Amino acid sequence: MGQPDPVRPEWAAPAGEGQWAVLVRAVPGARKSACEGTAEGRLKVRLAAPAVDNKANKALEEFVASALGMRRNRVRLVSGHTSRLKKLIVESDVEPSWGLLGTCGK
Q1: Integer Cα distance of 23 and 40 in angstroms
Q2: Which pTM does this prediction carry?
Q3: DSSP string computed for 27-82
Q4: DSSP β-ladder status, 34-39 and 42-47
Q5: How far apart are CA 70 and CA 40, in angstroms?
Q6: Cβ atoms of residues 71 and 93 within 8 Å
Q7: Residue 105 has pLDDT above 70, yes or no
Q8: Tell me: the pLDDT tens digits for 10-23?
Q9: Between the CA of residue 16 and those of 31, 68, 83, what are the distances in Å?
Q10: Distance of alpha carbon 63 from the chain centroid
Q11: Which of 3, 28, 48, 56 has an alpha carbon 20 to 30 Å from 83's alpha carbon atom?
């Protein structure tokens, strides 16, 4: 995903004008949704939703949007719909405060 910025986490990168790519390793079926650090260059997120009927994907979009203080429609899953390895696009004119994702901020 290009040369990383020293303050930007390895799992986030610019993805075009007003867009940011976020690489995620999702773990559905957790007791509660939470960030759990990084795994293989991806943000590791446990989700309190099962991996059925797109519930975990929707929960992931909602979790990331909420953690970044954005509306849910500003975060969308673009790849990995049936995989644990996912790519999200965050729409924002300025770089989001990645530290808002808790312990996963850097």
Answers
A1: 10
A2: 0.88
A3: EES-SS-EEEEEETTEEEEEESS-SSTTHHHHHHHHHHHHHTT--GGGEEEEE-TT
A4: antiparallel
A5: 26
A6: no
A7: no
A8: 999 999 999 999 99
A9: 35, 19, 24
A10: 8
A11: 3
